[in-house]
Amino acid sequence: MTRRIVLWLLLWPALSWASHTEPEPTKYWIVFKDKNRSAAPALSPGTLHSRQLRGLPVDDTDRPLSADYLAQLQQQGVTPLCRSRWFNAVSAQLSPAHIAQVKQLSFVKELVPIDRHLVVTSLPNVDLTRPQFAPVMNQIQAGEFAAAGLTGRFVKVGVLDAGFFGADSAAALKHLFVRNGVRTVRDYVNAKKTKNDLFHNLESMSDFHGTEVLAAIAGLDPTENIQYGLATDATFYLARTDQGNREFRGEEDNWVQAIEWLDSLGVRLVNTSLGYARGFTDPKENYEPKQMDGHTSVISRAAQMAADKKGMLIVVSAGNEGDDRSWRIISTPADAQGVLAVGATNSRLWNRIGYSSIGPESLPYLKPNVSCFSLYGTSLSAPVITGFAACIMQANPKLTNREVIELIEKSSHLYPYGNNFVGYGVPQASRVLALLRKQPLSATARSVNASGKSVSLPLGLNDKETVSIFRKKDETHVIQQEALKVSNGKLLIKRVNGEARTTVDLKKEVIEVIWD
Known about the structure:
Strand content: 15-25%
CATH architecture of the largest domain: 3-Layer(aba) Sandwich
Oligomer: single chain
Structural class: alpha/beta
Helix content: 10-25%
Strand order of the largest sheet: 8-11-7-12-13-14-15
């Protein structure tokens, strides 16, 4: 049986809090002006210790919301739905009378409407009963981590997703539940549901999605001797933040509240295989591609804050809009500079698979960061790299989130010649282990200067062997990717208009042709 994966769509105005000309929705963020500076941070001792080790100061974003402000809202008949200490705000359903009352409160800075008219965009189908993870395990050299005894042990991993139906009974996840590896589960869509409800009650077919993601991070089936994910011994904290396959109000507050909850528990590694781009009922409310800039959406700003101020490593699927000619680019929060955005490659050539979203040329930094094989969407390539990161964090728990990202990028097969189709390419476990051990890496990258309209590269490969190339207009932005055949042991590249560089991907080696 197949079912559909969905990506929910998000809209929150930029920091200017632009007003709407359409009828106002009934759900709002109520933003407070300040906090009680003397209040203790709402963080666990483990989180405080981790912050101290990494030189990350505790600030106002860690302090709880003012109890006095919350009480005054209650006195006005306003019931907060979600609370965000990072943005110093609560969300609530407000009647016209409540809107007028709340605006008069001296401690309220702003009311921010949350649009109600949302629909979902559909993505490729996935069959949980026939997982296709073996190719990617080979691609990223999973055996190297296994030989080194790296399985994500002692690493806390958070998963923010649409649902985890059947997770406790899936064969590939049985080992997690036997050892109590799933510590806590929260449903931010329906707070009244228990953990067992989340595992056993199916509201929509998208409730399988988080189960698949979890399997791609930590899946292991001993009876079949198949490993689906790398972090088989990690500890997991799960949160459902998205609902169903049709949506009628914004759920960004769920995601923000969930990421703050994970931070309070000391979780430093988070997978979120979700993305927000467009699909609003009213086309005027859709995101524009230019808004995938890393700071327009609330989810990107929250993810950036998690990276910069909380030391969290957020691994995000790049998006599946690569074949959509009217969009093509990554969705948010993959656009945030501080997150690790993961695209998808095909299994044979390791170049971009058609659906995988590309990085906007307007960004001053490279997106996606890296990529790996996934037949069924970037929702399943991101968790593979989350498991990869968990192994690195087990090997050296003192590494910062930025250091882990740098190691993953440097270990990738195209490094340092990244591009906005696949980032730095596919991370290689053997290379990251050498970097962790401070061993010298074998030279796998070189550049070649070329002039004129063509160049012939001797490669020493068999005739008719296929090689992937990326034609680029500059150092990172791809014009097109192609597959060329070797002839007489050489690869002939004929330059196209606007081509300034050409990356030749040999998997074990990368050659950068720099055209004069």
